[in-house]
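On clarity, I found the account of how folds are encoded harder to follow than it need be. What matters is that the chain and its backbone geometry are given together, residue for residue. The format is easy to grasp once an entry is in front of the reader. For illustration, here is how one protein appears when written out as sequence plus structure tokens.
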Amino acid sequence: MAGTIRAARDEADLALVHGVRRDVFIVEQGIAEEEEWDDLDPTSEHLLAFGPDGEPVGTARLIFGEQALRITGGIEGRVLLGRLAVLKAARGTGLGAELVRAVEAAGLARGAREVELHAQVQALGFYERLGYAAEGPVYDDAGIPHRTMTRVL
């Protein structure tokens, strides 16, 4: 995919992040607004992907520090990849994999040794191809079956 991925830098970038997430999760997948927006956004690092024409086409967030410890049950050195969203027009271009690798790199820069994510079951194969392994049972998150996956960096 020709374009760039960078960390969201300001409120204008966060508005772009939220626009992509709104299109993918709320409009396309039917997730309720109150389920999509949470208290993790203000303390997370958000990555924003732009297409070749400079339009926002994808995003992902990195949860780290105390928030990651709380969610992972206190596993030191583990960060969380979440809210990976790629607009329909940019799917199949490799952008999703690029965003995953960018989150991993951002996690490594923060001292992470592993990444955890909560994958929609329909996306398990995508993450497995990137080296993630499923663990634990399938569970419901926002009305969609999910499974926890991890990868050692």
Notes: The chain has one domain: 4-152. The first helix runs from residue 11 to 28. Residues 4-152 form a domain with the Aminopeptidase fold (CATH 3.40.630.30). The chain is about 35% helix and 35% strand.
